[in-house]
Design goal:
This protein has 13 helices and 10 strands. About 40% of the residues lie in helices and about 20% in strands. It has an 8-stranded mixed beta sheet, with helices on both faces. This is Septum site-determining protein MinD. It comes from Helicobacter zhangjianzhongii.
Length: about 270
């Protein structure tokens, strides 16, 4: 049965769309049929991370307004055949979204895909609520900073209160991705430790991703970093994919030692 996973965050700039792109590619690489849907209406960038910005003709709003069929708006990924992409509108306003239209869209996608990944807008405005309302699972992306953690705590509360599952007395499954970890800043006390973040947010951890300069170059090239076999963050995203699929994969603790990340070699053993 298809699973709807919303990737969300309390603030922008924490790597939410990057996580969405990499997890979508990773799930497709292991044989799952995946669609990544950009719900960040007016501020889309998932298309650029995937390298598909020039192939957009129709968008998610066109589909929901009946201006085109889903098949016309879906874009097949260039490198991973099992991955499709449904872009956000660049010109429409978030207020155009409607819960029932979003539900109809998701139900249609469930007929074609194993995993539906929704890239939620950051923050807690209407676009965010539409992206989490029909979710089966939410992945909350946070950086180890007080402002990011505080905002994500608010997001978790809204997911628990305003989802369709909450209205039926159930809960959306929630997991945490701690992104852009800088071991040297954690060690000198300038950045929260993973333990601190987990203690504050109190939801299960599904991924630890360190700061990695290769993410920027990968984004500029339109190829998610998970394709780079020598990238530490790419390997971390592969491990998150395995955990989404139910596999038990150990976490690696990142520590600064001698100018490199301790544990890096263990990632690739």
């Amino acid at each position: 049965m298809a699973e709807v996973i919303t990737i969300t965050s309390g603030k922008g700039g924490v790597g939410k769309s990057t996580a969405t792109a990499n997890l979508a590619v990773g799930l497709a690489q292991v044989g799952q049929k995946v669609v990544a849907v950009d719900f960040d209406i007016g501020l889309r960038n998932l298309d650029m991370i995937l390298g598909l910005e020039n192939r957009i003709v129709y968008d998610v709003i066109d589909v929901m307004e009946g201006k085109c069929a889903i098949s016309q708006a879906l874009i097949q990924d260039k490198k991973t055949p099992n991955l499709s992409f449904l872009p956000a509108s660049q010109s429409k306003d978030k207020t155009i979204l409607d819960k029932q239209k979003v539900k109809a869209l998701i139900e249609s996608l469930k007929e074609q895909f194993d995993y539906i990944l929704l890239d939620s807008p950051a923050g807690i405005e209407g676009g965010f609520e539409h992206a989490i309302f029909w979710a089966d699972r939410a992945l909350v992306v946070v950086t180890p900073e007080v402002s990011s953690v505080r905002d994500s705590d608010r997001v978790i509360g809204i997911i628990d209160a305003k989802s369709d599952k909450a209205a039926k007395g159930a809960k959306v499954q929630k997991h945490l991705i701690i992104n852009r970890i800088k071991p040297e800043l954690v060690e000198n006390g300038s950045m929260l430790s993973s333990e601190d973040v987990l203690k504050i947010l109190a939801i299960p951890l599904i991924g630890l991703v360190p700061e990695d300069e290769r993410v920027v170059s990968a984004t500029n090239c339109g190829e998610p970093v998970i394709y780079d076999k020598s990238s530490i963050s790419g390997e971390c995203y592969k491990r998150i994919v395995a955990r989404i699929l139910g596999d038990e994969v150990p976490f690696v603790e990142f520590k600064k030692q001698g100018g490199i990340l301790q544990g890096f070699k263990r990632l690739f053993q």
